[in-house]
Amino acid sequence: MNASPTPEGPGSVSGAPNLPVGFTGTFTSRYVDTGDLRLHAVTGGDGPPLLLVHGWPQTWYAWRMLMPALARDFSVVAVDQRGIGLSDKPQDGYDTGTLASDLVKLMEALGHRRFAPYGTDVGMPVAYALAADHPDRVDRLVVSEAPLPGVSPSPPLFLPPVLNARLWHLAFNQLPVINEQLVTGREDIFFGAEFDASAGTHKLPADVVKYYVDTLAASPDALRGSFGFYRAIPAIIAQNEQRKTRRLTLPVLAVGGEESVADGAGKTMKLVADDVQTVVLAGSGHWVAEQAPEQLLAALTTFLAPYREAHNPGTQTAGGLVQLVRHTAGVRDTDPVQPRPLLRSLPESRQKGGKPGPFGT
User: Fold this and answer.
1) What is the pTM of this model?
2) How many CA atoms does the CB half-sphere of 286 hold within 13 Å?
3) Which candidate in 69, 89, 215, 303 could, as Cys together with 253 as Cys, close a disulfide (CB 3.0–4.6 Å)?
4) Within 10 A of 338 (CB to CB), how many other CB atoms are there?
């Protein structure tokens, strides 16, 4: 399996706007032929491999604020999933079993037999499938901000307005054709509303949302590919009903935004895994890697420390890496930072546990 020439233009590192300081000196875009399809990945850094799996409706670009700091201790691979960004967009293969197999083949082609994946949003069920279907490949697992179809309870038909604004796309995106017909030419309206509804108090910058929307509006195949995961949900449910009979024993970190699923991802993972740590990022909405990168980096640094130390003894502390995130984002060390605890105390009703609601609510 051979890597193809370096991608250029929109969707690649060279065409991505407002990247952190020094990003292009560390990371490059590349096409990787997995044998079944060609995937686009952004790679850089040195150390044990860390695979970053984006959510919907995003691309590898969602991880940009974390990647320079992570590259100090990890070989970072931020992929565009099948159907997304610059990766191939076949008509089928969007169930999590196939998507997970894609990523195993990607990492194998890059020379990484065993690795740690982090999947957020729709990347969370993909990362879960990776750990469940390929346990010999995964050292430890990080997930955030999603349910597991076939494990989590399904959302009810009638929801409070705020939740309805966040979750109505779950049914809409599964439609076979009409969703593409309705969204085409109105991508800024549809996807803009989705980004805003899930952001909570602090919205993503308009230029960031526009970059994602432009990627989705680039071609009919890009729009179709964005709905692929949702149209495969019946198959994913059937697969997860089998996976959940084999509990995960590896360490799992489950992350949620305080203004989004909060501890819902942790509750969900405890239904299928034995060793789960839960972190709630204070003040963050759904887009945790873009809304709370310093908090998220600190949580990742702590959780991945045993994996990192096994390969690179004596590496940096969480504090040192957080300073690097601030530097690469253009924040001066003298600029004030509002202190935020990684995990705020949850209301008593949330502390008592029990099954999570739909999509971690």
Assistant:
1) 0.88
2) 25
3) 303
4) 6
Beta bridge partners of 281: 257
What single DSSP character describes residue 62? G
d(CA 266, CA 252): 9
Please give the Cα distance from 185 to 141 (Å, whole number): 38
Among candidate residues 170, 166, 149, 145, the one with its CA nearest the CA of residue 291 = 145
> CA dist 86 to 18, 216, 222, 279, Å?
19, 11, 9, 32
Nearest-angstrom CA–CA distance, 167 and 92: 24
Q: Cα dihedral sign for 279, 235, 103, 293?
A: negative
Q: In terms of Cα–Cα distance, which of 90, 101, 111, 89 is closest to 43? A: 111
228-256 as b/e: b if 16+ CB within 10 A: bbbbbbebbeebbeebbeeebeebbbbbb
Instruction: Give the H/E segment covering residue 119.
Output: strand 116-120
Task: For residues 221 and 139, give the distance between their C-alpha atoms in angstroms, rounded to a whole number.
Answer: 34
Angle at CA of residue 11, ends 7 and 13, nearest 5° = 65
Give the model confidence (pLDDT) of 287-336 as tens digits.
999 999 999 999 999 999 999 999 876 555 555 555 555 555 554 333 33
Q: What are the tokens at 32?
A: 């990787």
Phi, psi of 38 (to 5 degrees): -105, 125
224 contacts 109 by C-beta, under 8 angstroms: no
Q: What is the pLDDT of residues 94-104, one digit of tens each?
A: 999 999 999 99
Number of C-beta neighbours around residue 168 at 10 A: 15
Record the tokens describing residue 313, joined without a space: 């003894």
Three-class SS string for 255-280? EEECCCCCCHHHHHHHCCEEEEEEEE
**How confident is residue 352, by pLDDT bands cut at 50, 70 and 90?**
very low
Measured CA to CA in angstroms, residue 280 lies from 167, 238, 256, 272, 340 at distances of 20, 30, 5, 19, 11
